[in-house]
Design goal:
Blueprint: E1 4-9, H1 13-25, E2 28-33, H2 36-45, E3 50-54, H3 62-72, E4 78-82, H4 87-95, E5 100-103, H5 108-128, E6 134-136, E7 139-142, E8 147-150, E9 153-156, H6 159-171, E10 175-177, H7 178-185, H8 191-207, E11 215-219, E12 223-227
Parallel strand pairs: 1-2, 1-3, 3-4, 4-5
Antiparallel strand pairs: 6-7, 7-8, 8-9, 10-12, 11-12
Helix pairs in contact: 2-3, 4-8, 6-8
């Protein structure tokens, strides 16, 4: 892909320069920032298609930066770079708005694969969708615009929230298998992506709080079922 602008926040200058040069060589337009404060200032002034954030940074860490980015932009994909592989750290990253993570040390090829997988979902899939409105109890869901509507209240969903809800709608009152959803949206059905999906399921349940007839059930050992 060309002309894709990437914001890279990494305080390790050697790794940061190495990543920037590699991404530039792959035809990505990459801007490198050495701390979260500089990265946030740049994000607020410029337009980026994707953000790659180191979790451990001076002045403002990656988790805080992700939350601040999400406060103004729900759509831009975020990948975390982390030297930690503790479950709590990675789950907190997803809760702060991340789309994916990669644990140091990692191969450049793996990073490119993850970038391309996310961009395929966020840049190209919306073009292929056809207009269609789902009625979910008292709600209307427009997957193309990623809008969940209840009366005059509109909720803008994130890309993953919308993709997950659309899968649930497509299976309507039937079980959506957990592994199928993970591979369809997250590409990989590993433990951490599964925990991430649990976070998104919890969010979707909260969105339907105004209509008790709408439920997202856990089907033990299988997956989820949207009841409406």
């Amino acid at each position: 892909m060309s002309n894709i602008r990437i914001l890279l926040a990494e305080d390790d200058s050697n790794l940061g320069i190495l990543l920037k040069n590699y991404l530039d060589a792959k035809n990505y337009d990459t801007s490198l920032y050495i701390n979260g404060v500089e990265a946030l200032e740049a994000f607020n002034k410029e337009s980026f298609a994707l953000c790659i954030l180191d979790i451990m940074m001076p002045e403002m860490d990656g988790l805080t930066l992700s939350k601040k980015i999400r406060a103004t932009n729900q759509d831009v994909p975020i990948i975390f770079l982390t030297a930690k592989n503790q479950k709590e750290n990675i789950i907190e990253g997803f809760q702060s708005g991340a789309d994916d993570y990669i644990t140091k040390p990692f191969s450049m090829e793996e990073l490119i694969y993850r970038i391309e997988a996310i961009l395929r979902r966020t840049v190209t899939t919306s073009v292929n969708k056809q207009e269609g409105i789902y009625k979910i109890g008292s709600y209307s869901f427009n997957p193309l615009k990623r809008l969940l509507i209840f009366n005059d209240q509109q909720t803008k969903l994130t890309t993953k929230e919308s993709e997950l809800l659309e899968l649930l709608c497509q299976y309507g009152n039937k079980t959506l298998e957990r592994n199928f959803a993970l591979k369809s949206i997250w590409i990989d059905d590993n433990y951490f992506n599964a925990r991430s999906m649990d976070v998104y399921i919890t969010r979707l349940r909260k969105y339907f709080g105004n209509d008790p007839s709408v439920k997202i059930l856990n089907i033990h050992g299988k997956g989820y079922k949207l009841i409406f």
